Amino acid sequence: MESRRLLVKVCISHLVEKHGFYPPSAEKVVLAKNIIATFPSLRVQIEGKGDGFEHFYDPSSHCGFLEMRLRNIRRKLEAGQRRYTKRKISCNTESGLEQDQGDSSVTSEWITLMKRLRPSAENTPSIKSAMEKTYAMRRSWISKESPTVAEIFNEYPRFLDMPSLMDLEFGKMTDGKTDLFIRRWEASIIPKLKAVAAMEKSDVAALTAGMEDQTDDGKCYTMLVVLTHLLPPLPGSRCSVKSAISFLLDFAPPGTSIASLFSNPEMASKTQPLLICMGNLKSITRQYIIIARNDKVTVPVDGGLTCALDKLFKLYWVCNLAYPPQLSSVFTFFEYIYDVTISTNRRAKVLELISKLQASQ
What we know:
Blueprint: H1 2-19, H2 25-38, H3 65-74, H4 94-116, H5 124-133, H6 135-145, H7 149-155, H8 158-161, H9 164-173, H10 180-198, H11 202-205, H12 216-230, H13 241-244, E1 249-252, H14 258-263, E2 274-278, E3 287-292, E4 297-301, H15 305-318, H16 328-338, H17 348-359
Parallel strand pairs: 1-2
Antiparallel strand pairs: 2-3, 3-4
């Protein structure tokens, strides 16, 4: 990435020396093509389209690394050097407005670049840098406009093919609490939940029978079922305790097509994103997928059920989604594990369960 920045800096210095601070678009296209011709490894084609130089300069959108460098240079020009001037609004607001417009323009450049770059060892640093540069605008847009999951992933498609970006986003949103669930769920929360369940009425205690012989994913699933019994659906959610778990994790036979999941009438009531396990918990070929049925969006998840559950919760936060009403208390309990305090009106049963867990220490 540093070598690419240096290359762009040198090339733009040469371009400005020959054509000034506002070089013709044709000259920028020639420069972009020459860079790719000289350094073929820098060629990037998206789905086989374009000539592979467009991430340096795209004449149709007037975006790319070269244009970004030029705009950054122009922002520091004196008034007499500028080709375009802004109408003065007031002495107090002019500089702030110019700064905001400049920042917005640069952010748009990064978004365009990110859409063009496909995940690879070479492109990953640039993609992460673009996500960092666009964070403030993205959070503001999602918070104010409440876009759908499909709209968010259309604007920021790297969330789909680089799910680890959701970890980075969540970490910035929660002041670095990215790994708390992974660290606490299996090592601390599950043993305490099991102890609490053993003291409950017989039907809840029976759920944990034989856990010692289960796989890690099996233990995780059992504890999720225990949670739906300890924190049952609220009255009015039209969901039984027995079926509540299916709004968090459901199963599909191996080889099931994604299209069939979207059209399955049994999924019609599951409007919020949930996990689908392709296969069974004991199968070594099982695959977890986050599916947002209403938005026709799927996100494959690497790792076991704990990792998949972690990613699902982070998706809810990154996309600013309301929790499924059938599992609102369960998701509020997850907030306790992540040590986040957004839900200020934690329900009585959640607070009671947290108290029991803390007493079991």
